[in-house]
Amino acid sequence: MLKVLSFLKSYKKPIYIALLLMFVELFVELLSPLFIAKIIDEGILKNDLSVVLIWGGIMVGLSLVGFAAGIINSFYSAHVSQSFGYDVRKSLFDKVQSFSFANLNRFPTSSLITRLTNDVTQIQVLVFMALRIAARAPLLVIGGVVMALIVNWRLALILVVAMPLLLLFMVWLMSKGVKLFRAVQEKLDAVNSVMRENLSGMRLIKAFLRKKHEQERFAKTNHELKDETVTALRLIELTMPVLLLVMNLSILVILWFGSAQVNANQANVGEIVALINYATRIMFAFSVFSFILMGFARAKASSARISEVLDVEVDLTDGEGSLLKESTVRGNIQFDQVSFKYPNTDEKVLKEISFDVRASETVAILGATGSGKSSLFQLIPRLYDVNSGAIYLDHQNVKTMKLEFLRKQIGYVPQEARLFSGTVKENICWGKENATMDEIVEAAKAAQIHETIVNLPQQYETILGQRGVNLSGGQKQRLSIARALIRKPKILLLDDSTSALDLQTEAKILEAIKKQSCTTFIITQKISTVMVADNILLLEDGMIVANGKHNDLMKKSPLYQKIYASQHHEEVVGHG
Questions:
Q1: Residue 515: its pLDDT value, please?
Q2: Of 9, 98, 388, 444, which has the fewest CB atoms closer than 10 Å, so is most exposed?
Q3: Residue limits of the ABC transmembrane type-1 domain (predicted)?
């Protein structure tokens, strides 16, 4: 928790002001019972109205001071808590942005969303309570007991005995609460996960009539969240009955022995009233503890979850810098005995892969599902790092390059065409923020999407729905390709990103890419696509089992012949 609270260091001045004002408010509250005792003993019992007016006036004046201190304290407490929350969220978001894919695999998306929102909110609430009431409550208890001892130490001993019992109960409650509220946050992760999957897959759910199944799945996770929350809150709600029982018994004992002391002229009525007043304020302070404890338990659980993200060591370290300059990068790629396995798995998905690609060549990668095609792609921009071997860009190991420099040379079109909320123009400009309108149109024309865009209601200013829901699969793929081409990349990675396109459109895109003079890698299942490549890599079980041009592979690779036959519906054994 200390790691998360260290973000408060930037707000020392407003914190000190808030605490000072809280002490002023506390001081006024602790003095009030003394004034009440004086008004009763020296004013009301002696029929002296002047004493009542003087001390009553002082009480009203101090109350106004306490009221003003409380209002200003609330302002500073809110300022600190909201600014603190902003800083934690920003730091969390920046940390997640620096994650490699291996780091991201540790945390489900729904869990990261919960940590960035709900968990941060829990700690914000605690910070506000700490500056507004949390620090005041224990001080009011301590101050109340001290002032009660000053007024009448014999009767105040009753409070001295009761306080440790309540404190021990609170400590036990807090230790139990932290574990329970951590479980609550984890169940909230699960609910968010189900909701996210359900909303993103709504079309599929309706098409397959899975509404009832999804309702049952959500009801199950929602019920688990409810049960965990009820268990946690039930424990916290024990506070008030126990508190009221102990404090009311204490007040009864004070009144019992107090009446005996008054009858024996060992105490004044005002003293008894003051003691009851202090006991009531202490009871109120302890009732505040129930809220503080719940807030602290939830915040402690949340801070542990936030610290888990902040403490993650990013396993992709930046290189010292490239010997190359952006203007001199040509795009030669070499894989030298590259092997790779995903984190927390034993099986290698790529095994001793070696090949050379000259600048401006087009390489097609063909293979069955699970053969390692996409994994190979992800190693080039260092989304993952190789486990053994090395990848070279223009004869320099990519691990020695700055990640920003390396990725600037690459245009990447992933398997799933992912668009963002905003205009068509903004989505294309994702590839190059300061792109001119001419560059945007040029990229759109190369991706064969320009004509579609000009027929939209606002053309390039047309707003896309979330994830491009108002576009077809082929249109989304072409926009993704335009986003990559606008960068004028030296290396272009197309991960099965023409699967939704007809052969004619695909051919035009590949022709436009050829004119860009970039080294192009294409993952595809279409023989018509690989036929135009300068080289074809045929992958099976993470290994290159054959490579060469189309005609070469038709002569020497039975697997390639089989793939060709499956698409052309003819037997090609002995071809050529």
A1: 79
A2: 9
A3: 17-298
Choose the CATH number for 331-409+492-498+514-576 among 3.40.50.300, 3.40.50.880, 3.90.550.10, 2.60.40.10: 3.40.50.300
Q: Is the dihedral of CA 172, 177, 179, 180 positive or negative?
A: positive
294-305 tens-digit pLDDT: 677 777 777 878
* pLDDT score at 572: 42
Tokens of 212: 């009832």
How far apart are the C-alpha atoms of 413 and 427, rounded to whole Å?
13
Say whether 413-488 and 83-310 share the same fold. Answer: no
**Which tokens go with 519?**
């080294």
- Give the domain ranges of the chain: 83-310, 331-409+492-498+514-576, 413-488
Q: Could you tell me if 134 and 292 are in contact, meaning their C-beta atoms sit under 8 angstroms apart?
A: yes
Asked whether residue 559 carries a pLDDT value surpassing 70, the answer given is yes
Residues 6 or more apart from 348 whose CB is under 8 A from it?
339, 340, 341, 387, 542
C-alpha to C-alpha distance for 554 and 300, rounded to whole angstroms: 64
* Burial of 87 from C-beta contacts in 10 A (0-12 / 13-18 / 19+): middle
SS3 487: coil
Integer Cα distance of 247 and 217 in angstroms: 46
Partners of 537 in beta bridges: 365, 547
Instruction: Determine how many CB atoms are found less than 10 A away from the CB of residue 533.
Output: 21
Structure tokens that stand for 35 in this block = 């004034």
Assign 523 to helix, strand or coil.
strand
Coil, strand, or helix at residue 45? coil
Q: What are phi and psi of 548, to 5 degrees?
A: 145, -170
Provide the β-strand partners of residue 494.
413, 522
C-alpha distances out from residue 193 to 179, 196, 200, 204, 329, Å: 22, 5, 11, 17, 43
Q: How far apart are the first and last CA of the chain?
A: 71
Of 213-217, 256-260, 361-365, 569-573, the range with the lowest mean pLDDT is 569-573
pLDDT digits (tens, 9 = 90+) for 522-555: 888 777 777 778 888 888 888 888 888 877 778 7
Provide φ and ψ at 219, rounded to 5°.
Answer: -60, -40
Please name the residues in contact with 287: beta carbons below 8 A apart, sequence gap of 6 or more.
239, 240, 243
pTM (2 decimals)?
Answer: 0.64
Name the helix (H) or strand (E) containing 413: strand 410-413
> CB-based burial of residue 404 (10 Å sphere; 0-12 exposed, 13-18 middle, 19+ buried)?
exposed
Instruction: Say which CATH superfamily domain 83-310 falls into.
Output: ABC transporter type 1, transmembrane domain (1.20.1560.10)
Distance CA 530, CA 64 (A): 83
Which one-letter amino acid corresponds to residue 568?
H
